[in-house]
Amino acid sequence: MHSTNQPVLKGRLKGDQIRRLSRLIDMLYTPSEIAAEVGFTRRQVYRAYLPLGCPHERDETGHVWINGVAFREWYQSKYKKINLAPDEGYCLACKKVISLQKPKIKQVDHYKYFAATCPICGRKVSKAITNKK
User: Fold this and answer.
1) How confident is the model at residue 130 (pLDDT cuts 50, 70, 90)?
2) What is the pLDDT of residue 82?
3) What single string gives the DSSP state of each residue in 24-83?
4) Together in a domain, 102 and 74
5) In whole angstroms, how far apart are CA 30 and each of 101, 113, 128, 132?
6) What is the pTM of this model?
7) CA dist., res. 91 & res. 15, Å (int)
């Protein structure tokens, strides 16, 4: 049985982009400006963020304006880090949190991990246990 709180994948930012969110200030940005500041495309605003409920306003001409601080707070609440249970893994093929069934413990040098098969698609899934020297 897999978890019901599947992570939101569409529009997820990478590490450097997440750090750039802190640059946003309490002012209104156009989608192009916020995209340039954080490091994604304007298209991502319209295809991912607005349909997911990004706080914005439209002026009388229909232009979209996004408050920088409100966007940052919305992003951080919408795209929370998912902590997996000890018996759960993440299948990169299915893009889902899955239950690890009959995991085997494997080790390469100091890297110890679980190896299992995805119950949905049958691909290999691994989950790190430790990476200590």
Assistant:
1) confident
2) 76
3) --SSEE-HHHHHHHHTS-HHHIIIIITTTT---EE-TT--EEEEHHHHHHHHHHHTPPPP
4) no
5) 47, 45, 41, 45
6) 0.67
7) 21
The predicted-structure confidence for 12-71, as pLDDT tens digits, reads as follows: 899 899 999 999 999 999 999 999 999 999 999 999 999 999 999 999 999 999 999 999
* 68, 112: one domain: no
> Average pLDDT of the chain?
88
What CATH number has the domain bearing residue 44? 1.10.1660
> Under a CB-based contact definition with an 8 Å cutoff, are residues 75 and 21 in contact?
yes
Q: Per the structure, how many domains does the chain have?
A: 2
Q: Is residue 113 situated within a structural domain?
A: yes
**Coil, helix or strand at residue 111:** strand
The 10 Å Cβ neighbour count of residue 80 is 11
Assigned domain for 9 exists: no
